[in-house]
Every structure is written in structure tokens, then in C-alpha cells.
TrEMBL record:
Name this protein carries in UniProt: Predicted oxidoreductase
InterPro entries: AKR, AKR_Detox_Biosynth, Aldo/ket_reductase_CS, NAD(P)_OxRdtase_dom_sf, NADP_OxRdtase_dom
A cellular component term, taken from the record's GO annotations: cytosol
NADP-dependent oxidoreductase domain span: 23-316
One Pfam family named in its UniProt record: Aldo_ket_red
């Protein structure tokens, strides 16, 4: 399940498993097209191949990304290359008329795992994650169902996404828990109060999604950037004035800091920052074109020390006067879409 590492790529082992993953994972939400203004399938396949060639062996997807399309593209791209990739996908969301809602019931999990295996063209899912906690399903029911899949060998590791420490504790009382996937980046740091230390203390791999904050930390945006179609950034408070200008100002200063102190750009600083916040941290890097992976090689071979971390905190405090988190992304409960 491992690809030969590039000269600089860093790897970790998922605790409690034999799974070795690159510390950058390819995030494929945008590849599914939904909420990202569409996607070109042939270009997406090239992107996945380019990721493998750059030493990334970790591909993260989910059924809801394009309502099956992202998983299908990943399966197509890995046909003949499955041995080179660790696949993480998710379970626990359903959808109606293009609107997702939470459903982590046992019946939904058992139905969805078979659909994911088929779309991904594989007989085993390496890391299977509960996408969101479902208030209408007891965590014990969800954990028992995923635990059964783990014992049966249909999945190799168990993860959760968007769970609190209390929810993770309840979950792991019944089933193994190897990984957690919360939102985490320089601009969205709420997990530092609870989830990050919980994962560190319990040796749970932390798979940080949104490490570039939906492109804000790429350094490619300006205050005049606009978003079309179903692009989720149209509903993200960070991308609305006056917050947008504050975040763009922060990126400008962070980019200057990265160049002066490390000879890097803000995109590399942002991902290196996520990795250096914990030894078991993995950063998800979303891309749908191969050239978007070009900056990855400059993420490795250096570190952000405590003094530089403090400087980054100072820049953020001085530029972001009205911070806001990623709460807008939370899907509805089942009863809200009936």
C-alpha cells in the first residue's frame, strides 16, 4: 500500500495499524465538482497520478463529494495503481435533491460501504471515517457498525470527522479509533482547545482538512476575487467584506514573512504550520489540476520553530479583527430535510 517516497516527503504510521501514509494527503472534494464550480474528470485523473508521482500515497475522498463522482474518479485513477495508494473515504451522510444530511445509522453504513467499495474499485477501504456525528443515531450504534466492518476486514482502520473529544471517547469505548479529521488551518484553530490535545494524548492521527482554508492561504487570491456557480465560498463568511479584506491582508503579511525567514511562500508556510503543530498531523491538500501540486516539494526539509510560531500568531492577531470559523459547512440533520 506504499509508494516509494520522494526525496523530501515525510511519512507517519497510523497508530495501531500497519498503514504508512504521506504527511500530505490529496483531498478530492473539489475533484467531485459539487460546491466547487464543477470539475474536469480527465484532468482530475491526471491530478491523482501526479500526486502519486510526487510521493503522495494518501488519497482522501467521500461519497458526498459530487454524490459519488469523486469516489468514482479516484477508483478510475487508481485502476492498476491501487497498490500505490492508501484510500480514506467516509460514511454517514445521505442526500436528497442534492442536499446532504446526516445519517450514520447502521443500515446506512452497511449500504454505503458496498457502494464505496464498488465506486473505488477495491475490496478494502484503508481508512473509513464517520463524516459527521449524527444526533439522531446513538454513537454506540455507529461505532458497532464500523467495528463490525473492521473485524470483517472490509476496512483496515477507523476514523471520525468533526467529532468532539467526548464523542470520540464514547465511540472508542466500542470500536477502535485510529484517526480524526477536523478542520484545521492558521485561520481556523478551535481544535487547539480540545481535539488537538486529545488526539496527541491518545495517539490518534489527526488528518487536518482545509489546511489552505479553501484557497485563502494559497496566496493566489486578492480582494477582487469572485466565485461563481455553486462554489461554497459564496456562503463562507470569510469571503465576504469586510472580513475578506482582513484575511487577504493577513495572507500578504504571512507571505512576506515566509519569504524573509524561510525562502518559501505562504502556501508552503500554511501547510508546514499544520504539520509542525503535532507529530501525527497530516495536511489535506485539495487539488483538481496537476499544476496545483507543484508547491508541495518546498513544504519539506525545514521546520517552524517556537519563535516563528509566535511571530505568526502576532501577525494573525494584528490582521484578523473579526475571525470566524468553518461552522457554515455543517450539514443538516435528517429531520430538517424531510
Amino acid at each position: 500500500m506504499n509508494v516509494a517516497p520522494s526525496l523530501n516527503m515525510e511519512f507517519i504510521e497510523i497508530p495501531g495499524t500497519s498503514i504508512r501514509v504521506s504527511r500530505i494527503a490529496l483531498g478530492t472534494w473539489a475533484i467531485g465538482g459539487w460546491m466547487w464550480g464543477g470539475s474536469d474528470e480527465s484532468e482530475a485523473v491526471k491530478t491523482i497520478h501526479a500526486a502519486l508521482d510526487r510521493g503522495i500515497n494518501f488519497i482522501d475522498t467521500a461519497p458526498v463529494y459530487g454524490f459519488g463522482r469523486s469516489e468514482e474518479i479516484v477508483g478510475r485513477a487508481l485502476d492498476g495503481r491501487r497498490h500505490r495508494a492508501v484510500i480514506a473515504t467516509k460514511v454517514g451522510l445521505d442526500w436528497k435533491d442534492g442536499k446532504p444530511f446526516r445519517n450514520a445509522s447502521r443500515s446506512r453504513i452497511m449500504e454505503e460501504v458496498e457502494q464505496s467499495l464498488r465506486r473505488l474499485r477495491t475490496d478494502v477501504i484503508d481508512i473509513y471515517q464517520i463524516h459527521w456525528p449524527d444526533p439522531l443515531t446513538p454513537i454506540s450504534e455507529t461505532a458497532e457498525a464500523v467495528g463490525a466492518l473492521y473485524r470483517d476486514g472490509k476496512i483496515r482502520a477507523v476514523g471520525v470527522s468533526n467529532f468532539s473529544p467526548a464523542q470520540m471517547d464514547e465511540f472508542r469505548a466500542i470500536a477502535p479509533l485510529h484517526a480524526a479529521q477536523p478542520p484545521y488551518n492558521m485561520f481556523e484553530r478551535a481544535i487547539e482547545q480540545d481535539v488537538l490535545p486529545f488526539c496527541r494524548d491518545n495517539r490518534i492521527a489527526l488528518l487536518a482538512y482545509g489546511s489552505l482554508c479553501r484557497g485563502l492561504l494559497s496566496g493566489r487570491m486578492s480582494s477582487s476575487s469572485r466565485f461563481a456557480g455553486d462554489d461554497l465560498r459564496k456562503s463562507d463568511p470569510k469571503f465576504r467584506s469586510p472580513r475578506f479584506e482582513q484575511y487577504i491582508g493577513a495572507v500578504t503579511r504571512l507571505d512576506r514573512f515566509a519569504q524573509e525567514w524561510f525562502g518559501r511562500r505562504v502556501i508552503q508556510l500554511a501547510v508546514r504550520w499544520v504539520l509542525d503543530r503535532g507529530p501525527l498531523n497530516v495536511a489535506l491538500w485539495g487539488a483538481r489540476r496537476a499544476e496545483q501540486l507543484s508547491p508541495i516539494s518546498n513544504v519539506f526539509g525545514w521546520r517552524i520553530d517556537d519563535a516563528a510560531m509566535a511571530d505568526i500568531d502576532r501577525i494573525l492577531a494584528e490582521t484578523i479583527r473579526d475571525p470566524v470559523g468553518p461552522e457554515f459547512m455543517a450539514p443538516a440533520e435528517r429531520e430538517a430535510v424531510r
